[in-house]
From TrEMBL:
Keywords for this protein: Cell membrane, Membrane, Transmembrane, Transmembrane helix, Transport
Protein name (database record): MFS transporter
Subcellular location: Cell membrane
Major facilitator superfamily (MFS) profile domain boundaries: 1-408
Membrane topology: Multi-pass membrane protein
Length: 408
């Protein structure tokens, strides 16, 4: 629940960046430049996320998972509400984009420590034969948050364009305060995980988790970074880049694209726990490899479907790509990460892998895809090869993944 709220705040920015921020905070004579500047603020967060990960994973491995999650949600919620109150470029000039970037960086700090804590609460409570299922549940927070964000912007998009740009987009940011208070209430009522309690009772807690992880577990961190590539880059292509690409290049209506993404995300949300449960019987690595190979194979058909420029082809491409092909990859990601690090440094290890991988392949994806599209005269082929490249990197990473003995 708390993870869904935090990702709602996070994706609210991502969705709005494609539709609003280029006009409100980065007005230029060239709409492509404005869009790329907007995506740049989206990308910057991914490079501050590892810093948030360093800070909060230290707290998580030293003090506990629960306290860390309360702090991260507070940071995210506060920054989101302030973005909703932020004046545009016409009101305060250059301070508008500067303050937007600062608040987005605060969001990045919060989300940097969120994922690891939410995952470990589920994973470290899981029975041995249900690690895949329990580890997949926090991943649903990502898609539920995205559904809520997309629905919120879709509802506000029914307003006339001038009203939507003037104040309509701000409403979901301000309303998120209610969800944040709900999430904090829930998180204060949860207990610390049994695995961490046991580690702390036995003194098996790292003094400086980051140093220990980088000194003795750096290979596992590199493996986690590589595995993250195919999970994060296609996700932001299928969910964020598609919004601007389909509206500006292919001529779709904004609400049509948002509806397609919403349908696909609902399908993903249902598929994730099913894939997580299936991984308990067929194995995490086998499912991840299968999903990655299908992702690489589907990339070109995905763009070919979009080129048909019909609502049916748009929905099919988005549902298959985001809803079906991506689901098994993300469902097993958290459990895979958890199984290659011991309890002693698990929060730090999985957070480093996740956030560095996200910074390298996730935040840059919409920006790089927009640049490739513009550089190659609107051709989607380089973007497709980019996705295939992320799949190859992840296949190399999974080949070197080793499960540690202390994985409970």
């Amino acid at each position: 629940m708390g993870s869904s709220i935090e990702w709602f705040d996070y994706f609210l920015y991502a969705t709005t960046a494609a539709l609003v921020f280029g006009k409100v905070f980065f007005p230029t004579s060239d709409p492509v430049v404005g869009l790329m500047l907007s995506y740049l603020t989206f990308s910057l967060t991914f490079f501050i996320r590892p810093l948030g990960g360093f800070i909060f994973s230290h707290i998580g491995d030293r003090i506990g998972r629960k306290k860390t999650l309360v702090i991260t949600l507070s940071l995210m919620g506060g920054a989101t509400v302030l973005i909703g109150l932020l004046p545009g470029y016409e009101q305060i000039g250059i301070w508008a984009p500067i303050l937007l970037i600062v608040l987005r960086l605060v969001q990045g700090l919060g989300i940097g420590g969120e994922w690891g804590g939410a995952l470990l609460l589920a994973y470290e409570y899981a029975p041995k034969n249900r690690k895949g299922l329990f580890g997949s549940v926090p991943q649903m927070g990502v898609t539920i948050g995205m559904v809520l964000a997309t629905l919120a912007i879709t509802v506000m998009s029914t307003l006339p364009d001038d009203q939507f740009l003037a104040w309509g987009w701000r409403v979901p940011f301000l309303m998120s305060a209610i969800l944040v208070f709900l999430g904090l209430w829930i998180r204060k009522g949860i207990d610390e995980t049994p695995a961490f309690k046991q580690a702390k009772a036995s003194g098996n807690v790292a003094k400086i988790p980051l140093v220990e992880t980088l000194r003795y577990h750096w290979r596992a961190v590199l493996v986690a970074v590589a595995i993250k590539f195919v999970e994060t880059a296609p996700f932001y292509i299928f969910s964020t880049f598609i919004v601007s690409y389909a509206t500006a290049t292919l001529g779709f209506e904004r609400i049509s694209v948002l509806n397609a993404v919403t349908i696909a995300t609902l399908v993903t949300t249902l598929m994730i726990p099913l894939m997580g449960r299936l991984s308990d019987s067929m194995g995490r690595k086998r499912m991840f490899v299968a999903g990655t190979l299908v992702m690489a194979a589907f990339t070109f058909p995905y763009f070919m479907l979009l080129e048909q420029r019909t609502m049916t082809s748009l929905v099919i491409a988005t549902v298959v790509g985001l809803g079906l092909v991506w689901a098994p990859i993300t469902a097993v990601l958290g459990t895979l990460f958890s199984e290659i690090f011991s309890t002693r440094v698990r929060y730090t290890g999985i957070t480093l892998g996740y956030q560095i991988g996200a910074a390298l392949a996730g935040g840059t994806a919409p920006l790089l895809a927009t640049w490739l599209l513009n550089t190659y005269n609107g051709s989607w082929v380089p973007v497709a090869w980019y996705i295939v490249g992320t799949a190859v990197i992840s296949l190399i990473g999974i080949a070197f993944a080793k499960t540690v003995a202390d994985n409970d």
